[in-house]
Amino acid sequence: MDFCKTYLCFTIILTILPFSSCRSLINTITPNQALQDGDLLISTRNIFALGFFSPRNSLNRYVGIWYHQIPEQTIVWIANRDDPLNDSSGVLAIDSRGGLTLFGNKNRSSSFWSTNVSISVPNNSMAKLLDVGNLVLLRNNTAQSLLWQSFDHPTDTMLPFMKLGSNRVTGLNNIFTSWKSMDDPGTGNYSLWLDPSGYPQIFLSQGRTPRWRGGSWNGYRWSGVPQMTQTFIFNDTFVNNENEVSYQSDLRNDSILARQVVDESGIVYLSMWRNGQWLRFLSAPTETCDTYGFCGPNGICDPVNMDGFDNKLGEGGFGPVYKGMLYDGKEIAVKRLSKNSGQGIAEFKNEVLVIAKLQHRNLVRILGCCVEGVEKMLIYEYLPNKSLDVFIFDNEKRKLLDWRKRFDIISGVARGLMYLHHDSRLRIIHRDLKTSNVLLDANLNPKISDFGMARIFGGDEIEVNTNRVVGTYGYMSPQYAMEGRFSIKSDVYSFGVMILEIITGKKNTSYYHNNLHSNLVAHVWDLWKEGRALEMMDSSIDEAFGGSALRCITVGFLCVQEYAIDRPTMSEVVLMLSNEANLPNPKQPAFILKRNSSLNTGLSTSDGLNSINDVTCTVVEAR
Question: How does the UniProt record describe the way this protein sits in the membrane (predicted)?
Answer without folding.
Answer: Single-pass type I membrane protein
